[in-house]
C-alpha cells in the first residue's frame, strides 16, 4: 500500500512550516488537526512551498492530509429509502411562515 506524504511532512513539521509561512505554530497545528488549510491561506502556502523547492502541488494544499480514500468516495447510492423523524412542534413553527 502506497503512503502519501502530507504537506506538513514536506515542510518537515508544524513549527518549520509555521516559521516559513510567518504563521503562529498553533494556527498550523489547527490546520493539521482539522485536515484543512483555510482557503485564503492556500495560495500563500503553495507559493512559499514552491519557492522553497518543495515537491508540492495545489492538491497538497487543498488536501493537506492526502486525498480522501477512493473507497469512501466511490460508494454507490443506497437503494433504500431514507426516512426522517417528524420535526418537533417548535421546529415546525420556526420553519413555517406566519401569516
UniProtKB/TrEMBL annotation:
InterPro entries: Lambda_DNA-bd_dom_sf, LeuA_carph_isopro_dom. One of its GO terms (molecular function) is DNA binding. This is Uncharacterized protein. It comes from Sphingobium limneticum.
Amino acid at each position: 500500500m502506497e503512503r502519501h506524504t502530507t504537506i506538513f511532512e514536506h515542510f518537515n513539521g508544524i513549527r518549520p512550516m509555521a516559521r516559513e509561512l510567518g504563521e503562529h505554530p498553533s494556527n498550523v497545528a489547527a490546520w493539521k488537526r482539522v485536515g484543512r488549510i483555510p482557503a485564503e491561506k492556500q495560495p500563500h502556502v503553495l507559493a512559499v512551498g514552491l519557492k522553497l523547492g518543495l515537491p508540492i502541488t495545489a492538491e497538497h494544499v487543498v488536501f493537506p492530509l492526502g486525498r480522501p480514500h477512493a473507497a469512501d468516495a466511490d460508494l454507490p447510492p443506497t437503494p433504500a429509502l431514507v426516512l426522517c423523524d417528524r420535526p418537533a412542534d417548535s421546529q415546525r413553527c420556526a420553519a413555517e411562515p406566519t401569516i
